[in-house]
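Notes on consecutive records. When two proteins share a document, each keeps its own sequence and its own token line. Never mix them. Below: protein one.
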Amino acid sequence: MNIRQVELLNILLTTKEKYTLIDQLAEQLGCSEKTIRNDLKTAAIFCIEHSSISLERKPGCGIFLLGPEEERQHLVRLLQSNREKPTDERVFDIAYQLLTSNHPLTLQDFADQHFTNKTTVKKDLDYIADWLQPFGICLHSKQKVGIFLDGEEARKRSAMAHLSQLAPTHKHEHNSITRLFPAYEVNFVKSILYSGGFSFTDETFDRLIIHILIMIKRIKQKNPIIIPPDSQQITEQIEYQLAQELKKKIEPFFSVGIPDSEVIYLAWHLMSGKRLAIDEVENPMLDRLVNELITEMTRLTKIDFTTDITLFQGLSVHLQPALNRISYQLPIKNPLLTEIKNMYPYMFSMVIFTLGNAGFAFSGILPEDEAAYIALHFQASVERRKQRTPRKKRAIIVCHHGIGMSHLLRSRIERQIPGLQIEHCMSRADISKHKVDDFDLIISTMPLPEVSIFHIVISALFDLEDQERLHDFVENNGAVEQDQHQYATLQHFIVEDAIHVQVDLEHRYEVVEMLANSLYDHGLVKKEYIHSAILRERASATSIGSSIAIPHGNPPGILQSSIAVAVLKRPIEWGTEYVSLVFLLAVVNEDPEVIKKLFNELSLLSEQTEFVKKLSKQTTKQEILNELRQ
């Protein structure tokens, strides 16, 4: 049945009148009476297949569905479940089908299953194809064959594990794919993991649950993982022994044999999971990496991170599994990447610079998803320097994004809410191990229906709305106020002769190159700064929301702090966003407070959507400066 036929039958099932005229139905559904008569044949067949209800016709009166009320309600519920799914849910399901199918599928298959048309399915497939590219998976469509995916088994499983990020409606449901598996299977896998003594973040537990469920399904479909012969050395690791223990529990429950290649692959996942604490094992390579990272970030930002023991421990906890993820090709997608880049553009950029530095021992190995997590650790260190006392109400933080985000949340909350004393940061799995009733408040990044005491759910990045809600709870009126009309620091660094309006370029690299050349022509940066700014943009798009981008080059190439501006003739694609206003930042050797003010002003500007639109419409340099001064 198509959408119109579903609506027709729903009208007949729920109408209060006994008979309904065909011309009334045609008018209501916006089609001809002939179409209604044809659709009634399909509706009648549907009723016969799913109930004892029959379609009665009476000349001059119309049509009526004859049958008991309980069966009418049954058909109404059935129709409701068969309505065309929302776009996000349909895309999610189609992608999952493609990733798990052992044979080609057709447009008609998808159209029939999701009660839609081929044109809609084609658009969905284009979107899915783009999303699959970073995983190294290609979508093919061949006449007389169908639609199928080409890619290694490990890549398909990785894509399946990240399906929740394909559909925006699932972006905060890290285990949304589990809805595709029987509840008893999901609960069993959860039970063996939670009782296994693992010290993982909630996010990692969710990923492991998904991986094991996918592993079982793919083994049953005869699609095993292929492990290179030189991977046998992992059998000496403790994680391999733990994977073997899990195998012993899984096999009898699911009636499936797990080959050793799958055990090794599961051990890789265990080694790559984000942990709550670092292993008590000496790791000179890891210590070297963390020390180099902290030293370089101190040099670039002129903020002394070298004395922050919490920062060292947090980075160690994060980087140990991160290096394993890179080594075993088990990339993760950071669900907060865009928000982190937009909220902390300066710290994120400094991390990108450090990781891309050719002199850095591990340069180029960590993608921006990992870099964003690292930026949170450094931002948390900055926030810790601003803590205020005294504390009043005792609270704990429950965060499923790991230790880096937990520390950042703790620092930001303690700084913004002086009436709170944060006693502990923990995962959801650890709640049962603590006497939570001893605390006044639980601050959580997810709902906690099992907790009896009051808890407030906030976003992981603790935005302004969250701050206001938390302030209300602790009855504290001392919220930090910001002047939303001052861009003095931004104005100070803007070079009037380096403001360009009505810029007509096609690609963001061209814009970056033009602005960098402008600063070079004025003797404000070295020649190599131009190349470094383009390389930085290639590493990660510098858009920060609200049509603004803030590209920048390597600090050593800056001769004098300055900013160049481009107002684009029309918005152009800038990573995942479209941008119309560009600030090329070349700021170095400034007081950290000045840098902080500059990025606060840029962040504030990105929240003023209407003001950005107004700036983007200006046609002269002086108009741009005048608007910023108002």
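Protein two starts on the next line and is unrelated to protein one.
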Amino acid sequence: MLNKLINILNNLSTGTRTAISYFTIIFFTLLASITAILLLQYSKGIDEKLSKSFNPAINAAEDIHSLIDESNRLCYSLITQPNKDIRLKLEKIISKQYKSKKIFLLELFQEPELQKSKVLFNTADASFTKIIEKQKQLLIKTKDSIDIEGAKALQLEIKDDIAALQPVIGEVELKVIDASREIQLEKYESYRTLRFALLVMMVVVVMVAAISLLITNETIVNPVRQVSEVLNVMGKGDIVKFEVTTRRKDEIGDMIESAQNLSLGMKNKADVAYAIGKGNYEIEVPLQGKNDKLGKALLEMRDNLLQSKKTEEKNLRELELYTKNLEKKNKELDQFAYVTSHDLKSPLRGINNLAEWIEEDMGDTMSIESKKYFLMLRGRVHRMESLINSLLKYSRAGRSSNELELVSSKQILLEVLKRIAPSPRFAIYHDDALPTLYANYKEIEDVFFELLSNAVRYNFSAEPVINITYKIEKPFYVFCVADNGSGISPEYHKKIFTIFQTLETRDKIESMGAGLAIVSKIVEENGGYVWVESDEGLGAKFYFKWPIPKESVS
């Protein structure tokens, strides 16, 4: 039977066979889904009825039972320890609360399953209504102690009446609970029906799927697997002979024939590709025709590889030359730093010492003007030494990329503030959650030191404020050092990051003009950049971007 079915399906196209299998499975799956939805809707209706009627009815019956008990207790309290609060509570129960609860419960008793509970409650309500009348009389008798003895006798009657009413109220609660349980049993029964229906449908779907799988395996999967195995072997570099004696007339047959043609046509091209891979870029590439795209691709690949080889050899020669020049320049720079540090500083120290000796020798005979000139001379010597130190620091900035480690920017900030020691009049704020950076400790310390020392040095506000914050713009942390100082005109925003450039004369504010240049160089060498947002008289915000550690970017 199955073989006949397979033979019939073999006469159909692959798409038709696949569609028949899929639509059969989809039909039974859809049938199971509709059945499940209907049963779930029924169960949902039961759940809604329980939540909207039965459960509230149980709670309302319990509340009424509690109100009756509370009224009995309050009646007793009116006799034993009468006060205004007890009277008010009892009046509230018999005038408002009981009536409200009763109306709510009767509305819930509209469900057919609760009609017996409704009838029984009406009986209890009639009894409690009479008790309420007696409770009202009790309120009158106890008011201003009009009739204490009569009130005591009436309280005993109320107590007996409520005791007789208690079983009835309890039975109302039980009937509501029983009705709730019965409807819950209906829900559980629907769930059992749902499980059975789903089980049956599942078995049917599995059977249909198994038959469809078997047919698909025989008519599609096995032939495709055979072709796939051959193509997989060819994809690994082996050229195999592929022949199939049975000729099929469907899409699978066309695929098999194409695989055979591919196997036959790959031999020559494989030999050519192997030769090119070995570095033979002079080999001739045979073309099977004008539409031989693979042959043309091999030809183009051979020519490109030949050209790339020549370009690579040229680039390597240029790179070697550039590396040698760079090494030479670095050695010259190191030599310059050495000469600057030793040979230039020594004469300056000599000039400074000579000026001090001349002053000591001349003593009191030196005029005030001469003392002024000698003081200016020593100042210029110190300034020259500071310029040399700044130049050295600038030349070495950003050259410690091989000494990186994880450092806390918050810890560095606090240490820098200790070094600067700003005046107590400065209000300095910073983000408590400053991040951990991957940096050279000394370099990132220099960045914060230069930015903060500038913010302190150039802030002449009556109430100076400095604020250090950061935000994340992946893959960077963006730090901001903001102050409310005199600000910087936009025309000088680029100039201030050039070494030895200052906005004020050095005689007015002692500054070498190298700090921001050093900051810029350090930050840029580490993959970030620096900029300023400011205007004259409006304070300044210095920003710099620093790469987030790779393990923190994701």
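For the record: Strands lie at 405-408, 427-430, 436-439, 465-473, 476-483, 530-534, 540-547.
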